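Q: Could you write out the predicted structure for this multi-component system? I'm mainly interested in how the pieces pack against one another.
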Amino acid sequence: MTLVILSLAFWLAAYLFNNWLAKSRWSGSRAVRLAVPAIFGVTVIVVWEGLVRGLNVPMVILPAPSAIATRFAASLDLLWIDFVQTVVKGALTGYLIGTGAAFVTAVLIDRSLFLKRGLLPVGNFIAALPIVGTAPILVMWFGFDWQSKAAVVVAMVFFPMLVNTVQGLADTGKMQRDLMATWSASYWQTLFKLRLPAAMPAVFNGLKIATTLALIGAIVAEFFGSPIKGMGFRISTAVGTLGLDMVWAEITVAALAGSAFYGAVAMVERAVTFWHPSQRN
Amino acid sequence: MKSVLPILTVVVAIVLIWYAAAIPMNAQWARDQAARADTTLTTSELIADTLSQDRPRLPAPHQVVVELWNSTGDMVLAGRGLSNRSLILHAWYTLSATLLGFAIGTAAGILLAVGIVYNRAMDMAVMPWAIASQTIPILAIAPMIIVVLNSVGVQGLVPKAIISAYLSFFPVVVGMVKGLRSPNASQLDLLQTYNASRNNSFWKLRLPSSMPYFFTALKIGIAAALVGAIVGELPTGAVRGLGARMLSGSYYGQTIQIWSALFAAALLAAALVGIVGLIERLMLRRMGMEQ
């Protein structure tokens, strides 16, 4: 009981402290802007730990953060094998193939107004569909190993990427295109010097959306069959044996991998589209 | 209207490519069967066979359409519209979980967004996490939610709805915060000169001007909620729902069943997004915000 009260007290104290920080005269500073969400995150973990221990919540319902951390540290090699299988082989391969194919397709269909008019609504439509549902079919076609996961990822990222790139390629003003025409620039010169650079913000938007989709596709496809490794496989088998600390450890890996993947793409974006207003501080 | 012809062309092209792909993908099986029966197939016989197998690697479009009709309209005509083999019943299981979860997730998302907009501490503390959580494959926790809730005795609709709610929650929070902040400084200043209370400025300025953002978020949210409900049906071992149809289809190699469940899910998603879009158009028109 004391643990419950202690954790609630910690929560109240952190809340008041955060409130004070946010209203204080340093609230605009970089340190406070980092500290406030960090305090919130720590509070969640402390309250979680306190409530789970104080109320004796059984492990099969919600393991404490400390139990998850212990399991995480104890099975690093297993988590690494799963990470390589799902993220590197499945998600990353599929991501590169899918976004690359979509990018090339977008540049090709961009030359034809007819194709653009036809493919853009269809692509938008398909992008909203539950494409993870193709996972059982693709697992049947490409086998249980990572190839089928990569195929699901390709199917998931292709259309969002295509739609974004096509929209990006249309993202130049008439004045700019006229200027290129007065310099008698060829189609390819206009493409490489004007339209592709101008398309980069939209392209990176598509690439960022695709990072999350790639991980979701690779993990969910493993629920339909996989070799005895992989994050989705481990989650579904660990859930079956009620080893919830293992499930949470895998979720931690997924969260870290997702954030790192997204962060990496965002960093490349900053370097490539440094000229865009949204990147200026 | 000028894009009707291009769209139709693309759709027809997809169907043609599909037929063309079905022939080589199913040809191996047809040849094996013929070799086992000690017959040889002519090309036309081979093509006819590849498009009419019971368990093809890639069913032809018309086979999927026939299966869809057989498990929906035909069963209704036979008076068994809600039998266990009917896709209507399974679609309803999925749809009810989707809608319940979507309603919960949207309501919670709006509340959190209002809190974030009006409380600076909450904004600084929660918003970075809300944005970061969008980069995380949340769907991975679906099996755990199902099994944990099952072990405390909650079954059926609610666990799936919780996954749907979770998935539709974050897009709504992010979109709604953007929307509630969309009034510009001069509009807020105007209300200040009218001596409007915080309440007034919320109901008369912030909430109305958030509507376009809100509906964009709703369209993302309802599509995510449907995916959540479908994935939520997988770990319970293929009992009911469209996800269960896909899983049992993949267990028994019933490819046509998988494809028809997939198409039912796609139609459902299109209908849900379409309905939200229609409400958006009607509402924005009444509010005079039509683009």
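A: Regarding packing and overall arrangement: Residues 134 and 170 of chain B are 7 Å apart (CA to CA).
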